[in-house]
Amino acid sequence: MVSPNALQKTTPRLRNRYSVQTTLGARLGRRTLLGFDHSNNSPVVIKYLCFDDPLQPNDTKRFQEEIAVLKVLDHPAIPAYIDSFDINQHGYSGLMLVQNYIEGQSLYSLIHEQKPFSESDVRHLARHVLDILDYLHSQQPSIIHRDIKPSSLVLTPGTSSSLGKVYLVDFGLVQRAQEPQTVADEPILISGTPGYRPPEQLGDRAVAATDLYSLGATLVHVATGQHPNTLPQRGLRILFGQELGHMSRPLKAWLRWLTQPKQHKRPISAQAALQGLEQADEIFSPTHRLSLISLSQRFQRAILERMAPANTDLKILEYSQTLEVIFPPLGWRNVRFGLALGKTLLGGLSIGLSCLGCLHLWPQLTGFWQHLLAIIIGLGWIQLSLRVSYQGFKAVLTSLFQQMSIQLLPDIILLGYRFPCRPVRYEINTYKQDIQDIDLQPGSSTITFHLGHNRTVIGKVKYSFSAQSLGISKSEIRWINDILQLWLKQRVTST
After folding, report:
1. Which is more confident, 473 or 73?
2. Start-end of CATH 2.30.29 domains in the chain
3. Which among 7, 206, 369, 395 counts the fewest CB atoms within 10 Å?
4. Does residue 217 sit in helix, strand or coil?
5. Chain region(s) in the chain for CATH 1.10.510.10
6. What CA–CA distance (Å, rounded) separates 272 from 405?
7. Start and end residues for every CATH 3.30.200.20 domain found in the chain
8. Is the pLDDT of residue 349 over 50?
9. Is-contact 464 266, C-beta < 8 A?
């Protein structure tokens, strides 16, 4: 850095106070300058909105909003506001914002240098940024950053074994949550950075969960070393499980929660996200014995729902100390439905052909015994065809309407099949103490129950169901296994 004495001799002062040393970053209309505050004898960052560049209609408004927000913020991890002013001198024409200078390195540059990040580093980043976001979102009205990304986070030098302090910078897209975003005649401008912005930001809408998605995408970038846009996707969902093989399952589940495309499936606040991060290990680690009882019922249901795979149709209901998981019907797109429909049509066609055959052959038969034989054969064939058609039609209705249900009471599990206007057909009805194991082998998609006793089907002490048989994905079957394992570890309290 150039010394203050040298700056005093060679560089003109802005407002008789600030000297510009160098340019830290530049894009059309905006410059980020490294300067020196001669009044306080300290380095500063000067953000400059240049009127000589072609500007968008909202650029000036956004710059002024950034100034207004930074004036009221007071957080140790946000560079403090110092000054702001109009300028038209020394070759500068526009608006300037002055903040404290943080000596450190952006997270983006650390990723670009291929610095290896451990799981503890990712958790460290998450906790510090969530603390900042909790402060922003707790303001009245809430303040939404809208552009969380690696280049928006600056890290001060840390020790060899840990990261330094984390700062949140670049409030150029900041927005107060309750203010109107557009008027009828204004075009909707897409804000945020591709790869880090959630779907709702494509319509320039933002809430607290918007920042949480951007944080999740940023942490995925940190953990994988790959920009979110380069990772595989299914619909609007980022798929990163394979790339995070070196990270624990609880952390991956938590990151999936943050990066849910649907806004309502993400944490409702930074505090909820932080609580989820701290509880994730206890919920999903097989070595811990934390139970659902230790969580509030509302938070328990929320975290289970929000850690569900993307676009799942499985439902969780909670009532009268019972947690119920309902599987959707197989539906008409399933292979079983096609086979069942084919069986139904084949049976019906066989009946039709039998009737036509009888009508055609009957006049050509002579004698009592020939007619009797034709009647016996015809009726037998029609009976067989009716049975095939009935079985197919029953399978069609099953595919369209039957739902599997797993009900988890504090000490009892009920697994059965629901069909409209019929009682539930239970396959498993047993006490928790009579369950020897609930098993899902690594890489498998089949959950197997090993029971010591089954009160519904005598002698049926081993029962399995697979993702394929239920028409669900492997990620959904793993999620169901998580719920079952969590319930299994829950200690039953005596009343």
Report:
1. 73
2. 403-489
3. 369
4. helix
5. 105-182+189-310
6. 29
7. 4-100
8. yes
9. no
Neighbours of 434 (CB within 10 A): 14
- Thinking of the domain 403-489, which architecture would CATH place it in? Roll (2.30)
Least confident of 56-65, 154-163, 466-475: 154-163
pTM over 0.70: no
Lookup result for tokens 């029953």: 394
* End-to-end CA separation in angstroms for the chain: 70
Mean of the pLDDT values across residues 198-213? Answer: 87
Pick the more confident residue, 44 or 397.
44
Residue 116, number of CB atoms within 10 A of its CB: 8
Q: If you ran DSSP here, which 8-state letter would residue 413 be given? A: E
Count of alpha carbons within 13 Å of 423, Cβ hemisphere only?
Answer: 3
Choosing among 3.30.200.20, 3.30.360.10, 3.40.50.20, 3.10.450.50, the CATH entry for 4-100 is 3.30.200.20
The neighbour count for residue 273, using CB atoms within 10 Å, is: 27
Average pLDDT of 283-309?
Answer: 54
Could you write out the DSSP letters of every residue in 48-91? EEETTS---TTHHHHHHHHHHHHHH---TTSPPEEEEEEEEETT
What superfamily does domain 105-182+189-310 belong to in CATH?
Transferase(Phosphotransferase) domain 1 (1.10.510.10)
Instruction: Return d(Cα 237, Cα 251) in angstroms, integer.
Output: 17
The pLDDT value given to residue 306: 64
Residue 357 has pLDDT above 80, yes or no: no
- DSSP assignment, residue 486? H
Residue 117, SS3? coil
CB 303 within 8 A of CB 278: no
